[in-house]
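Q: What structure does this chain adopt?
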Amino acid sequence: MVKEHRPTLLADDFVFLEAPRWHQNQLWVSDVFDRKLYVIDRDGSRTVVRDLPHRPCGIGFLPDGSAVVISMRDRKIMKLVKGGLALHADLAQLATGDLNDMVVDKQGRIYVGNFGYDFHGGAPKALTDLHRVDPDGSVHVAASGLEFPNGAVIIDGGRTLVVAETWACRLTAFDLAPNGDLSNRRVYADLGHREPDGLCADALDGIWVGCFNTGEFVRVLDGGEITDRAVCGQHAVACQLGGADGRTLFCSAYAGTVEEHLAGKRFAGIYTVEVETPGIAFSVR
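A:
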């Protein structure tokens, strides 16, 4: 039986929130269409970290603690430095659509997805690549033929990478080699009609995923079994486990239509759900 959870509103009055990350006892999150990177405290108060004119999205942290953030429209990954931003990697000549989300491994390699086509311009859907950015800033194709690769997580002690293929309604897994190569592509979970967006993993390798079209955040296991569910608004965007004990699921959701968020209507918020299994950074074994 699927366990149902009731979300609680933490903070609202945002345009469209993506890629929540728990770091140093704060929640980092990108407001894509308000072009701001925020940190949000546990009381719901917020601070603007940086404005990003080309739309921020995925957020990550390198082994030295430095924050990196995707700049969607110009297809770059920017590094936060004292006094501003520095270019970490430029994918403008490689990615065939705007960049979206990413995951950083323990070596500082970044795996980043992109739309694959001009989504906002009305172009037809197209398959695209998942790219890997190495610590020196060089960019490589990690996997090809993906359908809107979006949120990603690394599980199984660093041996497996799972990425959401949004339009395909599935999570796709790869073996992750010590040198960063991906192989053995397979379906991790067929989500049926649900369109997966942002992901996070817990300490038992369960994956929480925001299902954009249904407003659900679901916890799914390898093979597709759904164990838990929380419903937030019309669109469930992305999620992250954090808090003092790693058992607070922070959920970014949007209460309006796609047209309203593109028009800048401030219907986005962060919700919290208390769950049983803590985040992957919090050991329960």
